């Protein structure tokens, strides 16, 4: 598996450090392989207590952390990390039907989750999103500008302009616009948008998507040729006029 996304590294060029924690060795081996193919330095742990020790020594930039472990569960690991002042971002691994775990994990200070069984590509994508949000890494691509028509979005500086006019967006509006622009001319359902922008599917209200689309329209399209389009009964897309 190789990523078609630009490599993320520390500003000084050093590799990102990722700690993967799960009591299933086959799973941690697969995760480690996929993470190393991203160019990242990887350590693994098979228990919660081991994870705490490795986290102290390794100082990872992000954790992939299973919730269900025999000695110390993922919630307890996260709690101890936070109590010690460690704010490392955490991507939880949860059972597919453990809705309560997902809610509790994010409420407790986790940053995102994926449900088992998952694809390695999804884990990488979620980690990249978390790492970008923390600002600890830069993309080694020189292509941080997204463009749709006369609309531009700079993924590094978070600046958005349309026809040379700067547009101020909230963090959530920015993430929503970025997701749409990365999928230009592709119809995205409310469920897809909820899952990628808000990172949950446990009862999230689709009305929040409609609300934020309306916010974006007022800022992006007001008085201009519309770029944001509703495909009734399907979802939303962004495309430049023909």
Automatic annotation (TrEMBL):
**Can you give the residue ranges of the OmpR/PhoB-type domain?**
143-240
Q: 4-aspartylphosphate (modified residue): where?
A: 66
Q: What's an example GO cellular component term for this entry?
A: protein-DNA complex
Q: Give the highest taxon in the source lineage.
A: Bacteria
Which sequence positions fall in the DNA-binding region? 143-240
> Which BP terms from GO are recorded?
regulation of DNA-templated transcription
What is the name of the protein in this document?
DNA-binding response regulator
């Amino acid at each position: 598996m190789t990523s078609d996304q630009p490599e993320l590294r520390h500003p000084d060029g050093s590799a990102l450090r990722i700690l993967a924690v799960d009591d299933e060795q086959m799973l941690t081996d697969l995760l480690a392989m996929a993470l190393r193919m991203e160019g990242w330095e990887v350590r693994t742990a098979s228990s919660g207590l081991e994870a705490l020790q490795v986290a102290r020594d390794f100082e990872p930039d992000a954790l992939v952390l299973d919730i269900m472990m025999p000695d110390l569960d993922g919630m307890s690991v996260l709690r101890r990390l936070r109590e010690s002042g460690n704010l490392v971002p955490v991507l939880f691994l949860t059972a597919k039907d453990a809705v309560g775990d997902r809610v509790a994990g994010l409420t407790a200070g986790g940053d995102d989750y994926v449900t088992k069984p998952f694809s390695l590509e999804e884990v990488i994508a979620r980690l990249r999103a978390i790492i970008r949000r923390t600002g600890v890494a830069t993309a080694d691509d020189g292509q941080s500008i997204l463009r749709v028509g006369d609309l531009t979005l700079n993924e590094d500086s978070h600046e958005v302009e349309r026809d040379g006019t700067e547009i101020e967006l909230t963090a959530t509006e920015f993430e929503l616009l970025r997701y749409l622009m990365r999928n230009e001319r592709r119809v995205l359902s409310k469920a897809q948008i909820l899952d990628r922008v808000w990172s949950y599917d446990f009862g999230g209200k689709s009305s929040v998507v409609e609300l934020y689309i309306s916010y974006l329209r007022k800022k992006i399209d007001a008085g201009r040729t519309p770029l944001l389009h509703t495909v009734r009964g399907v979802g939303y897309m962004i495309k430049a006029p023909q």
